[in-house]
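Changelog-adjacent note: as of this version, every example in the card shows the full chain rather than a window. The one below runs 513 residues end to end.
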Amino acid sequence: MVRQSAQRWVLAIILATVALSSAQESMPLDFTRAYWIGLPGTAGPAVFRRSFELLGQPVAGRLLLTADRRYELFVNGQSFGEDSDWAAPEHYDITKALRTGRNVVAIRFEPGAHPGLLVSLRAFDDQGSLAQLGSDDSWRAAPGTPEGWSDPACDDRGWEAARELALYGAEPWGRLTRMSTTETRRALEESRLPLADDTADHPATSTFAGDYLPSAQATAYQSFVSVDRASGRFVIGDGTQALLFVRYQQPGGLEQFDFDRFESDLAVLSANGLHLALTSFGWPDLLDGEGAWRRLGAPPRGSGLPQLHYAYQVLDRILDRAQSHGRRVMALLDYTRPLPAGALAEPYLDKLLVAPSLWDGLLRGQAKIARYYTDRPVLIGYAVATDGLPPLPSTTEPILRDLWRQYLTERHGDIATLRQRWGVGALAYGDLASVPLPSQRPDDPAAVDYERMRQWLVLTRLNSWVDAMRAADPHHLYAAGLAAAAPLAEAAQLRVDLLGTFALSPSARAGSA
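Full-length structure tokens:
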């Protein structure tokens, strides 16, 4: 009788384990029903607890956890570690700590920039029952670290209910992309860089306050400009000129720009034959996070200024005043910060290169700015440099592993071809999908292919950027910068080198401003 009971118990364990495996395949653990929770009014550490019941013998338990900024996890008094990378949730196997009856999860939390805790848990017992929960207002919370907080016997009945801050996927955290390829794709499908269609509210050309003085200045801006690579000088019209540009910037950005001071500085520059190289011409300066023309937070300073409501209006007046002093203006575009803060949630920032939907949104925003430049008398040198592009995601990112598999399939076709090319280093892999991302050793054959993949991706994105800029604004100067990509075997494929000579602001004529 005892032996038959034992056999039935073993059979129940086997069946429950099979059921668990099936459930894990059909229902991968994620944060779908979880809320970011917190304890408002508490600036320091806090503790969160949640209990749940298992009727039978525990078979398996999994817990998915992240926190902005740091957490320490205990299950039934056993420590499972701590972490502080909120964008990369951790999976924990908590089976060994589970027990029949009451179980307690206890988490010590330290707040970050956007304080919040996010938890999902699933556990099975030998009776086939399932305990599944996510972080919500059923969790108990207390400020600080009360005595015995990690002990299952701790009395937390007098603690507060946790506050539900936002359902998973909401800003400012967004979807967390280091969980699975499926979740990454879902996140990137939902993430967009929208561009407001507000062109009707803004003039098609600059509204300059004065005339072009001297008049020859307007003629110069109707000519053609290129760069003599041998001498490094600008070719304007039929003549080669050395234009000396001084980087000019006032503290505080466009909101605190002082036009009275600017007039004084222009007089000094004009007396010395110098021209201006200005910053503040990129997306973070001209557009807001939704791609609409950015409104000023405060008006600039100066005597007799008209009302200026948008950032581009400040730039228009800067260009006008520079023209009145006979100064040319070059825009220095900083593409190491292609987007303003808040345009994308932090987990997506390193995915601009690998996510087509995000890259397309970035191009549409840059094209909108390029169309603004088309009608402005400003020399725009688009320095397309690979070292100014956003970085690739970490090798722990599922989407990068997915891209790696796609690249191997396109380049090698099958595992047999890969083995022939890589040699003994590929014998351990059964198919292309099982080939991991490479180490950083230069003798690793996978590292060579990974570098080729990176080069291919960079070239593809740069060429699409150049094409988008040319289509939006064919009148300004482009230059290639490959300082960080010297090994690029395919550098000749970079279309930016073939842009040649373009008209510079042909519509910026005297009398049309």
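Structural remarks: Residues 403 and 497 are 28 Å apart (CA to CA).
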